[in-house]
């Protein structure tokens, strides 16, 4: 009996130790980003290895804010991410409802076609897409980023998985009571979909906030940049000024990390309830 | 439910409508509900995709109209060493990153699903990289693997190991791309596996323990098969991601040194938007897509036959 409990205790210590080591490995690059962002230039150029800075400074942030329209870029990122998330959530919910609850000819094929778009990297279609947004006369506006980003096959997939889990009788009985599909969608499915909506909205927000490849093409003018594009642009100008680059990277990263940590519980639950396991 | 009970009058009017027209109504509703997503995907994915296939058959320069040259762009691929290098790197990257991030993700999920103090904190820490943009991740990588001032080499030297030429040595550069990717992606794999593990009842583990199954046996013969659906989902997602890897390579190494880390997507981007050879870039893209379709089809087949066997 005692041997088992002792073995259980050392096993537990081992697990804790392992968890600590893994967490340290994951956290260290982020810690280092913060250290560099707040370090003086001379200290960064020094050769010796220090785990923490001697003096903390805001000069990196000041330099970045003085040289670049950081707040404009921040505003662009917020505007684009929010509009994409709204469109994408609406389109995903409607599509998910149709694929989960409605029977119609071609439903399976359309579902597969929708999912297959997951496999198409934007780089494959960039050249004609660039021509298309030029033809639609939206090149050089927010819409050039928003519209091509808003169609989320993964969102439709998640919505379908979630809505399939809603008891069919609820929907059937509302139908027998004479409710149209729009009505069923609005007054029965939507209220039950709150966790799903939270997941879809947050996922879309996160993805668009961090999106890089297409905005890099679609946003040529400096004042329309989103944060990741601005970050790369700034790195190109600053060269190996890691202090400035990391100060800006911190501005790019912090809002989403905070949101992510605050909402992660709902995020994880919502994910689990979509039946992906 | 806030639905009003049907009044007798509307009830009679509604009843004959069900039947054939009710089903037709379901079809109409289906298409109506799908309209927004299908319009978006149609206009911004399928139309450009068809465009890419057409352009891949053309010789182009700049953004004017090209001239049709048949399959010449595809023929050029065969004798292009950078294309072969990029195709090889894409495949290698997929073959290395997919199983590694799944194994590490499953390991972390099992660890953080066991009895552990502050389990929630550890979980939060491990998924934080998911929230960080690819560009920021890659720039942290640039900072870490800098040959003159990088923290990784400083750490290696601090413990008495030789520094590594992360930027000038091709293999080391490839390894740095893989390491940064794993840091970024393992959290997602862990998250999906955690969701899968939570569906398994602890009681069956207790039963197996009483029957004398070792920890490894329980993992190998119970956990692994029971998270099978998660594994299949992650396999597909990781392969799709790996084939499309862009931000990390583009920012961390730019495909260098000497194309040692170039992948098909970065090569297509460079060809289309730096060299401005759009026809050839589209051909690279189409080949990438065909490769991916093949890979995914094989995965489907394997998983289906496995379902039949087990």
TrEMBL record, chain A:
Keyword set includes Cell membrane: yes
GO CC annotations, alphabetized: plasma membrane
GO biological process: transmembrane transport
Annotated Gene3D superfamilies: MetI-like
Topological category with respect to the lipid bilayer: Multi-pass membrane protein
Subcellular location: Cell membrane
Membrane-crossing residue ranges in chain numbering: 16-38, 78-102, 109-130, 142-163, 184-206, 242-263
InterPro entries recorded: MetI-like (IPR000515), MetI-like_sf (IPR035906)
Chief location of this protein within or outside the cell: membrane
Domain of life: Bacteria
Keywords associated with the record: Cell membrane, Membrane, Transmembrane, Transmembrane helix, Transport
Record-linked Pfam families: BPD_transp_1 (PF00528)
Domain ABC transmembrane type-1: 74-263
Membership in a protein family: Belongs to the binding-protein-dependent transport system permease family.
Protein name: ABC transporter permease subunit
Automatic annotation (TrEMBL), chain B:
InterPro entries xref list: ABC_transporter_permease, MetI-like, MetI-like_sf
Family: Belongs to the binding-protein-dependent transport system permease family.
Domain ABC transmembrane type-1: 87-299
Gene3D superfamilies per UniProt: MetI-like (1.10.3720.10)
Predominant location category: membrane
Protein name: ABC transporter permease subunit
Membrane-related topology note: Multi-pass membrane protein
Pfam families: BPD_transp_1
Keywords, ordered alphabetically: Cell membrane, Membrane, Transmembrane, Transmembrane helix, Transport
Region (Disordered): 1-25
Source organism per UniProt: Nakamurella alba
Location of the protein in the cell: Cell membrane
Lineage top rank: taxon: Bacteria
GO process terms (BP): transmembrane transport
Transmembrane segments: 28-55, 92-112, 124-144, 164-184, 279-298
GO cellular component: plasma membrane
